[in-house]
Amino acid sequence: MPAPHDAQDDVVRGPARLTVLAGPTAVGKGTVSADIRARYPQVWLSVSATTRPPRPGEVHGVHYLFVSPQEFDRMVSDGEMLEWAVVHGRHRYGTPRGPVVEHLSGGRPTLLEIDLQGARQVRDAVRSAGLDAQFVFLAPPSREELVRRLVGRGTEDAAERERRLATAEVEMAAEPEFDVTIVNDDVTRATDELAHLLGARAEGAAPAASQPA
Ligand code: 5GP
């Protein structure tokens, strides 16, 4: 059985590139990921495991693998997680390594939408293995807009919003650690920019030859 962190150098062998998308809470990472899923089906979106309960409309195996704390412990101790973190001081979230390796070695552009702690773990893993991955920071148009989005979402109580705001401040300061920043002022534009970085093209889009160089 592999030790928890001794198999990370198998992560990004193969032609496809691993892309990690992170950014502050409520910047719209989930919306951009959903838009990627809808318009760029050639991109494989990693399905994270989480101990958080599902929200209405979330589907096990599509949006997350909703697992018990015991099952999460097992996945970590069996070395199945590429990275994992406690997010917002509450629930645990992690990226199962196997499917990431599988899709990358099958040549599929692969996207992880994870928090900053997870992005740092992946960065350390790929760096120490000398492998290729790109790290994309999704930024709000302004700090004021981020606060508006955070409060406007209305899915969390006041204490949870405070916690998320504090986390968002720390996350905003991490932007210089990333290779590229995409400003999420318009979801479709931000998604198209991300897809371009992934080397993906929208279904039905004109062939590359007719695009500007
Ligand atoms: P939510 O509970 O709103 O779906 O997600 C909360 C946060 O968890 C988001 O910032 C999201 O990026 C992060 N997250 C989702 N999946 C993972 C994961 O596999 N690993 C890490 N480190 N963070 C994750």
UniProtKB/TrEMBL annotation:
Q: Which InterPro entries match?
A: GK/Ca_channel_bsu (IPR008145), Guanylate_kin-like_dom (IPR008144), Guanylate_kinase (IPR017665), Guanylate_kinase_CS (IPR020590), P-loop_NTPase (IPR027417)
Does the keyword Kinase feature in the UniProt annotation?
Answer: yes
Q: What is this protein called?
A: Guanylate kinase
- Gene encoding it? gmk
Look up and give the organism this protein is from.
Isoptericola halotolerans
Which CDD domains does the entry mention? GMPK (cd00071)
Q: Which reaction does it catalyse?
A: GMP + ATP = GDP + ADP
Cite the binding residues for ATP: G23, P24, T25, A26, V27, G28, K29, G30
**Which family is this sequence assigned to?**
Belongs to the guanylate kinase family.
Recorded GO terms, molecular function? GMP kinase activity
- Guanylate kinase-like domain ranges (all copies): 16-199
Source organism, top-level taxon: Bacteria
Which key words are in the record? Answer: ATP-binding, Cytoplasm, Kinase, Nucleotide-binding, Transferase
Where is the chain membrane-spanning? none
EC number per UniProt = 2.7.4.8
Question: What subcellular compartments does it reside in?
Answer: Cytoplasm
According to its UniProt entry, the function of this protein is described as: Essential for recycling GMP and indirectly, cGMP.
